[in-house]
Design a protein that fits this description.
By secondary structure, this protein is of the alpha/beta class. It contains 28 helices and 24 strands.
């Protein structure tokens, strides 16, 4: 039996895999013990890879719609025919309506992403959009504006205090973050968890702060006030490396422990104890947590609050602290922003970006300011901000333009390894938009609800069928292709390059294969993809406190506690807490009477990841139905028993899920699983795989008043709801 090295890509990390191959077919998958990062470990998702590769429902050939949209009638065609027809239609639409008539919806790193941005920049459309607005990217863009990079490499193992804020590592990052936390605790670190649910991490924590969903920023402001008032901040760092401290001090003055308790439900004494524990630790980290990005009105300023806490306590760019700079040598590798070709977007087209008038910080105006400030640093100090992470059209505005034709017609859309009917809020509006398109192109693994609405569907290759490099601030590791693509599956680079060649972009796609691209990226460090694989990665020594020599990648060259970029773009330059529009503290008492419970969605649960894995039998045996987690006392009051079907309603709509009774929940809140659809159902309208039945995004609003004013992040947590037994 042959054994080949490859990697997993069923969530963000690229953990090493060994493919055991018999007669040309993978028959077993195990972890790669020699992988320099994952060291042989595979999580529950990774162990589904074999089922994913050979699943009978996988798409293997290009398909063209022959019936009405959503009727489920398809014709198998060749890649050549499909690409030719799509390119011809895009060319005609661009000629009639302008390049901005094409949009794109992002997925979550199953494809390469930079190739999409490269294609769109060359095509001339500024309208890529997707879930970036609610998933890591609020933190990403905001941290660049605050200190010139995003913390993606907290030195957890050597830290003396680990704060898991809105981060359920055992479900979201079990192979990376979870063992680091365990190692830190073994080394004597204190563990603090801020989460409305009693997660596994909370059970192991020294302090658990059971916060009311949506109020995290108020707690952060209380921490900042306590740290400043009690002289617990790093005076030398603040004096020499920050701007805006006096204004920050004034801005947080009213957030006393008592006031913070009233807002957050965290006892005042615990507010003081937790802030003191964090500030007085010899070193401390607050790793990224998705919980802060999904709160709507406060999401962007939550990212600001976390960044400010790191700075005023001197925990940036130090051993055991939060790190955003790159290791030596690794910073020389050509990165994804380099490959995006953002300078090819015509200036006039940038101004047409949908939503940039309302949310300029998350469009070209904000990205260009972040980019210019970051570029003042030496090359290789901190990765420049990638446009696909932090320079987006707003999804709501894109859907409106498709439906109304205003401010201009959007007639075509491309979706790769994404499922907008399950990932975007206001699901009915997304559905109406997909129906209204003249051309909808999808590249996918399976026929999904969104793909079922397409005109053309292309088959995507599994990660083990394509090579990749795993590039971070600390390392660059080769991810080898394990097997030849099955049937006619292709990678996203092939898709975009072939479209680009047909649309006059020939000179900008010089590399025939994705491995050729990686060879080019590795030239500055004297490697090829194969050499990188042979030497098992590129690593460099971290250099700490380089800000003492180079400063920070912001307009002022210092950590901007008061953000000049925010101020220039009309946003609050200092964090300001806003009570969520729908909350127990709503100014409309009749609303809270009708919807008395707090609703969160978007929590990670194994082995599913977003809307994926629903076809895989092993995954569905573990989680056969969508679950609503509810406290035993609340369930008893509502007459609900374990396994009952319940109807969950918000002012936006209603869905059904099965009841799961658990005391990890607060009695006043419930947690609805997200991204549920049913591949076993009929793909034809009106069923469309049951996409409207249990989809939590049916409950989530996206109107302007619900969204963060800086980037338009909509809420899919910290909502209000009513739960009733299904009749």
């Amino acid at each position: 039996m042959e054994v080949r090295r490859s990697y997993c890509g069923l969530c963000h990390p690229r953990c090493g895999m060994l493919l055991h191959i018999d007669n040309g077919k993978v028959v077993k998958i195990t972890g790669d013990p020699d992988h320099p990062i994952s060291r042989g470990a595979l999580c529950e998702r990774g162990r589904l890879m074999l089922d994913h590769i050979y699943h009978p429902d996988r798409l293997n050939y290009p398909l063209k719609r022959v019936g009405e949209r959503g009727e489920g009638k398809w014709e198998r065609i060749s890649w050549e025919q499909a690409l030719n027809e799509v390119a011809e239609k895009l060319s005609k639409l661009r000629e009639e309506f302008g390049a901005e008539t094409l949009t794109f919806t992002h997925g979550t790193k199953r494809t390469y992403h930079w190739d999409c941005r490269r294609f769109f920049n060359l095509f001339g459309s500024p309208n890529t959009c997707g879930v970036n607005t609610i998933c890591m990217c609020p933190s990403y863009a905001t941290e660049y504006a605050t200190y010139g990079g995003m913390v993606m490499g907290s030195d957890i193992v050597h830290s003396q205090c680990v704060v898991m804020w809105g981060c359920n590592a055992s479900k979201s990052n079990p192979m990376g973050l979870t063992p680091m936390i365990a190692a830190a605790q073994k080394n004597g670190a204190k563990l603090m968890v801020v989460d409305p649910r009693r997660t596994k991490e909370a059970e192991k924590a020294d302090l658990w702060l059971q916060i009311r969903p949506g109020t995290d920023l108020a707690l952060m402001l209380g921490w900042i006030r306590h740290i400043i008032t009690n002289d617990l901040y790093d005076k030398d760092f603040v004096a020499n490396h920050t701007v805006g401290f006096d204004e920050l001090k004034d801005a947080v003055e009213s957030y006393t422990p008592k006031k913070v308790e009233e807002i957050t439900s965290v006892p005042a004494a615990l507010v003081v104890e937790s802030a003191t524990m964090y500030a007085t630790a010899a070193s401390a980290v607050i790793p990224f947590g998705l919980g802060l990005d999904k709160q709507g009105v406060n999401s962007t300023q939550c990212a600001r609050g976390r960044a400010i806490l790191r700075a005023i306590t001197g925990n940036l760019e130090v051993p055991g602290g939060d790190i955003f700079s790159q290791a030596a040598n690794v910073g020389k590798v050509h990165d994804w922003e380099y490959l995006e070709l953002n300078d090819m977007m015509p200036q006039g087209q940038k101004a047409k970006q949908l939503g940039a008038d309302k949310y300029p910080f998350f469009g070209f105006p904000g990205w260009e300011r972040n980019y210019a400030a970051n570029k003042k640093l030496p090359q290789g100090y901190a990765m420049p901000p990638e446009a696909w992470h932090s320079n987006l059209a707003h999804a709501r505005e894109v859907m409106n333009a498709i439906i109304t034709g205003k401010p201009y017609p959007v007639k075509a859309a491309i979706t790769l390894a994404s499922n907008p009917l399950l990932s975007l809020p206001n699901t009915q509006q997304v559905f109406e938009a997909l129906k209204a398109l003249d051309l909808y192109v999808v590249m996918e693994y399976y026929m999904t609800p969104s793909a079922a609405m397409a005109d053309y569907v292309f088959p995507a290759s599994t990660t083990v069928e394509q090579p990749e490099i795993w590039l971070t601030s600390g390392f660059c590791v080769a991810c080898p292709q394990g097997i030849d693509p099955i049937e006619e599956r292709k990678d996203s680079y092939y898709f975009y390059r072939q479209l680009g060649l047909r649309l006059g972009q020939e000179e900008h796609w010089p590399w025939e294969t994705i491995e050729d691209v990686y060879d080019h990226c590795l030239e500055p460090v004297g490697l090829t993809f194969q050499k990188l694989a042979e030497q098992n990665g590129l690593f460099g020594e971290m250099e700490f406190r380089r800000y003492e020599k180079y400063g920070f990648g912001t307009p002022s060259g210092k950590v901007e506690l008061k953000s000049s970029i925010f101020e220039e773009l009309g946003a609050d330059p200092l964090p300001v807490y806003h009570e969520p529009v729908w909350s127990p503290e709503s100014k409309e008492p009749e609303l809270t009477e009708e919807y008395p419970l707090i609703l969160i969605t978007g929590s990670r649960f194994m082995p599913m990841y977003h809307s994926e894995q629903r076809q895989i039998e092993k995954a569905r045996k573990k989680v056969p139905d969508p679950l609503l987690s509810i406290h035993p006392d609340t369930a008893a009051e509502l007459g609900l028993a374990e396994g009952d079907w319940a109807v969950i309603s918000t002012p936006s709509g209603s869905i059904r899920q099965r009841v799961h009774i658990t005391d990890v929940m607060h009695p006043k809140m419930v947690d609805a699983q997200h991204s549920w659809w049913f591949p076993e159902r009929n793909e034809k309208l009106p069923d469309l795989f049951g996409v409207f039945e249990s989809n939590a995004n049916m409950l989530c609003p996206d109107a302007h008043e619900f969204c963060s004013p800086e980037i338009g992040s909509w809420p899919h947590s910290a909502l209000i709801c009513r739960v009733e037994k299904e009749q």
